[in-house]
Design brief:
By secondary structure, the chain is mainly alpha-helical. Among the domains are: 53 residues, 2-Layer Sandwich (Double Stranded RNA Binding Domain); 84 residues, Double Stranded RNA Binding Domain (2-Layer Sandwich), CATH 3.30.160.60; 52 residues, Classic Zinc Finger (Double Stranded RNA Binding Domain, 2-Layer Sandwich). The protein is 50% helix and 11% strand. The protein has twelve helices and 18 strands. The strands form nine sheets. A two-stranded antiparallel ribbon has the order 1-2. It has a two-stranded antiparallel ribbon with strand order 3-4. Strands 5-6 form a two-stranded antiparallel ribbon. It is elongated. 2% of the residues are buried. The N terminus is likely disordered.
Length: 315
């Protein structure tokens, strides 16, 4: 019986069943095909909508069996699993460094090409990826959205907060395989290892001098450009480096965070504390090559040398 045959085919193949059903309603072959195309399009759109909802409305169907973290897309889970397996399938053909994500490789290759497509409209500093620009902008805005739940100190970057929290925990999970020194952050370990390898991948296009760290190159370039993008909101004085601005601002606030554990005297700069400590330790690292006299501060040695050179800088 034709009806029985049609039902049987319909159960095994939904698309063919719909086609037969449409013809049964008196539609021509062309009309039924057009109607079927519309049904297919509707099904495809429904699948796309479901995928979108899974991603943006919060349904996370794919779970990591190592740490329990969940994801809306299977490919996100696959990428995440590389944290646990240590797999790094993407390799740089310039230096051999490997990465877990293709995006990380793309950003890394800009070190070699020198490409910095993201520019700060405040100071002109340029970056190879948008995330670095976003973090940099917090220097200008003063935004510090990340707070430490131990001491309340706030930070512009989540990574800086993570590093800070390890002051409280004492955790240093990253170890150098050359000297055994340990670090709180993997990035700091990477920079440290350049001491052993001698690698200086960042070159100045003005004088050719090379540097181990990109940040050092950025600051060095300001010697050539005379750029001082960081200004004090109290007195208007300009600085080439944000760290120097921070130190300067302590003069206005009277802040002296570095205290001597021997006598309690406090200082605005860590370097000043180091020099002060030599009074207690008796360390006289600076010696005159003319007469052998030693000093605790380089400034004292410079003043002493004028005895030999007969220099009178204030005459």
């Amino acid at each position: 019986m034709p009806g029985g045959n049609w039902t049987e085919v319909g159960q095994s193949n939904g698309v063919h069943s719909s086609n037969c059903h449409l013809r049964g309603r008196g539609l021509s072959s062309r009309e039924s095909e057009q109607h079927l195309d519309k049904e297919k399009k509707s099904i495809a759109e429904t699948k796309l909508l479901k995928k979108h909802q899974n991603r943006y409305i919060g349904k996370k169907t794919y779970g990591c069996d190592q740490c329990g973290k969940r994801f809306a897309q299977s490919r996100s889970l696959v990428t995440h699993m590389r944290i646990h397996t240590g797999e790094k399938p993407y390799g740089c053909d310039q230096c051999g460094k490997r990465f877990a994500k293709s995006r990380q490789l793309v950003i890394h290759t800009r070190i070699h090409t020198g490409e910095k497509r993201y520019g700060c409209d405040q100071c002109g500093n340029r970056f190879s990826d948008s995330g670095s620009l976003v973090n940099h902008m917090k220097i200008h805005t003063g935004e510090k959205p990340y707070g430490c739940d131990q001491c309340g100190k706030r930070f512009a970057r989540s990574g800086t907060l993570l590093a800070h929290q390890r002051i409280h925990t004492g955790e240093k999970p990253y170890g150098c395989d050359q000297c055994g020194k340990r670090f709180a952050l993997s990035g700091v370990l990477g920079r440290h290892q350049r001491i052993h390898t001698g690698e200086k991948p960042y070159g100045c296009d003005h004088c050719g001098k090379t540097f181990a760290h990109s940040g050092t190159l950025v600051m060095h370039r300001r010697i050539h450009t005379g750029e001082k993008p960081f200004s004090c909101d109290q007195c208007g004085k300009l600085f080439a480096e944000p760290g120097t601005l921070v130190l300067h601002q302590r003069l206005h606030r009277g802040e002296k965070p570095y205290g001597c554990d021997q006598c309690g005297k406090a200082f605005a700069r860590s370097g000043t504390l180091v020099r002060h400590m030599r009074i207690h330790t008796g360390d006289t690292s600076y010696s005159c090559d003319q007469c052998g006299k030693t000093y605790t501060h380089s400034g004292y040695l410079v003043s002493h040398m004028r005895i030999h050179t007969r220099e009178k800088p204030f005459g």
